[in-house]
Amino acid sequence: MTLPHPAADQISLPNVLAVLGDPTRLAIVRYLASKEGVPLNCSQFLDLGSKTNLSYHLAKLREAGVTRTEVVGTSRLITLRRDDLNARFPGLLDSVIAAAVDDPALPAVGASEIEVRA
Amino acid sequence: MTLPHPAADQISLPNVLAVLGDPTRLAIVRYLASKEGVPLNCSQFLDLGSKTNLSYHLAKLREAGVTRTEVVGTSRLITLRRDDLNARFPGLLDSVIAAAVDDPALPAVGASEIEVRA
DNA sequence: TCCTTAGTTCAAAAGTTATTGAACAATTGT
DNA sequence: ACAATTGTTCAATAACTTTTGAACTAAGGA
């Protein structure tokens, strides 16, 4: 079973920008970039919203072509579509991620750990 | 008389992305980039929408910090805030513009000229 | 089999954005 | 002073997006 993804050449620039123009989704992308290579499932992002709400945002990212979602058992493993995005919009994802990393206003994944450690 | 603009360090990444994630506004930015140096007033963009609608979109671009609007007589001269955007989000504007230039789905400024010439 | 874990779907509500037309304001040219 | 040009504001509406909770599906482990 596989979920629908747009082909690389179907990825729309305004759509990608609109999808990234939401703080929750930008935080998801920033976290994916920081854990690149590690397979992440949806529950990793529960700091950013409810299960239902994340399902919605993750679907938006997938449908826009920003992420790839692989079904593995009951999990969905989510990765950035770095290569496809880079081929279609060179430099865009990198500059967005670099700017997002420096953005203190974005919600953080793992924010609760700070309290736990304290 | 001057219009309100955000300070460079007040420009928000998600807001910039959201504002650029609209085909009309992306077309405005692409045209501004193609005519950099030339002062453009609002009527240059009438191909993209009604006067009222453009006033709305141009205000969004200004309020997000993407453009600067200078009041000169009854005109508003609009320019890209290239330096401020580049300082805050290095490479972002360039990659967006480069991708927008190649996007055939964006509405074009001056599309009517094609008909006129034909 | 039964329970848990992981995530989706649906419908409703709330909030936001885009588009329109009519009325307005300010400047410029005659 | 008058008219034309440029663009804004306002209120209404239409269209979309986000968020929520309850109900659901599907896989995995006890």
TrEMBL record, chains A, B:
The keyword Transferase does not apply. Keywords: DNA-binding, Transcription, Transcription regulation. The keyword Translocase does not apply. Residues 15-94 form the HTH arsR-type domain. It comes from the Bacteria. One of its GO terms (molecular function) is DNA binding. CDD domains: HTH_ARSR. InterPro entries: ArsR-like_HTH, HTH_ArsR_DNA-bd_dom, HTH_MetalResp_TranReg, WH-like_DNA-bd_sf, WH_DNA-bd_sf. This is ArsR family transcriptional regulator. It comes from Mesorhizobium prunaredense.
